[in-house]
């Protein structure tokens, strides 16, 4: 038997003001998107903004449903729209912000497992890393240089 350790490396910025200018703009788009979330059941609003290789920004927010599992997370709303609108354009960066009506979320909130799997599909497809920045409502921002860094042991087309 041997033990295998897997590393996940994040960079942490003290706040949105410390981000590179283009990422700050992207995070501000994500914040605007978050404010348009439809989350009457969880009262947990999430916004995502994606920067594409053609310079366009695609946004998404979580969309809930009275039949709970029919709702969709912000990240997948955005990534599927990007894929539908521009099937051949690469995704460069993604900014994510989450806020709860129960109190101010100050810690970075990472994308859920299902969203990581969905984003991984596009990272594998484009064969180029997607930078992911995520935060709460305010405070620190975490950066991952790729989706694969957030989802080691990915299940992808190579196993099919
Ligand atoms: N949610 C997202 O939009 N993204 C995530 O990565 C995690 C969760 C949404 C789904 C649901 O509308 C609410 O947050 C609470 O789970």
Helix content: 25-40%
Give the biggest beta sheet: 6 strands, mixed
| Computed structural class | alpha+beta
Dominant shape: globular
Average predicted local confidence, pLDDT? 97
Low-confidence stretches: none
In the CATH hierarchy, what is the class?
Answer: Alpha Beta
Query: How far from one another are the termini?
Result: 27 Å
Could you say which small molecules are bound to this protein? tetrahydrodeoxyuridine
Spatially, the strands of the biggest sheet line up as 1-6-5-4-2-3
Over the alpha carbons, how many angstroms does the gyration radius reach? 15 Å
How many β-strand runs? 6
Alpha plus pi helix count: 3
Label the CATH architecture. Answer: 3-Layer(aba) Sandwich
CATH homologous superfamily name?
Answer: Cytidine Deaminase, domain 2
